[in-house]
């Protein structure tokens, strides 16, 4: 990825940010990981509602894995909306 960016300071910065995310070493990395899970379950909820399918495995795969209070609260809100439609 860094080679595609031509190397240099920008590429190094992106590499450092990627490693921060992979290592889950900062609050920002934790928020981004939570947002990634939120996006997945939101999309699963949309598919369930639009296509009348049960995508429980997506919700189970994220259960108990949110690291931030924001992620946890959003996940609870999505679960409540899912229960309301189910």
Characterise the protein shown here:
This is HD domain-containing protein. Residues 3-72 form the HD domain. There is one protein chain. The chain has helices at 8-23, 27-51, 56-62, 69-85. The mean pLDDT is 93. The chain has a domain at 27-85. Helix 1 crosses helix 2. The chain is an all-alpha fold and 86 residues long.
Q: How would you concisely characterize the structure shown here?
A:
The protein has helices at residues 8-23, 27-51, 56-62, 69-85.
Give the arrangement of secondary structure elements.
Blueprint: H1 8-23, H2 27-51, H3 56-62, H4 69-85
Helix pairs in contact: 1-2, 2-4
Work out the number of β strands: 0
SS-based class = mainly alpha
Using only C-alpha atoms, the radius of gyration works out to 17 Å
> What is the multimeric organization of the chains shown?
single chain
Uncertain runs with pLDDT below 50, 5 residues or more?
A: none
What is the mean pLDDT? Answer: 93
Q: State the end-to-end CA separation.
A: 42 Å
The helix tally amounts to 4
Q: Write the H/E string, N to C.
A: HHHH
Shape: elongated
What percentage of the residues does DSSP assign to strands (E)?
under 5%
- Helical coverage, percent range: over 70%
**Largest sheet, described in full?**
none
Keyword list:
metal ion binding; mainly alpha; single chain; 0% strand
């Amino acid at each position: 990825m860094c080679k595609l960016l031509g190397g240099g300071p920008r590429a190094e910065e992106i590499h450092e940010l990627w490693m921060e995310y992979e290592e889950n070493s900062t609050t920002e990395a934790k928020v981004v990981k939570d947002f990634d899970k939120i996006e997945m379950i939101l999309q699963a909820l949309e598919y369930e509602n639009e296509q009348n399918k049960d995508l429980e495995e997506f919700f189970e795969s994220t259960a108990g894995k949110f690291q931030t209070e924001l992620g946890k609260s959003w996940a609870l809100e999505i679960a409540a909306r899912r229960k309301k439609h189910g």
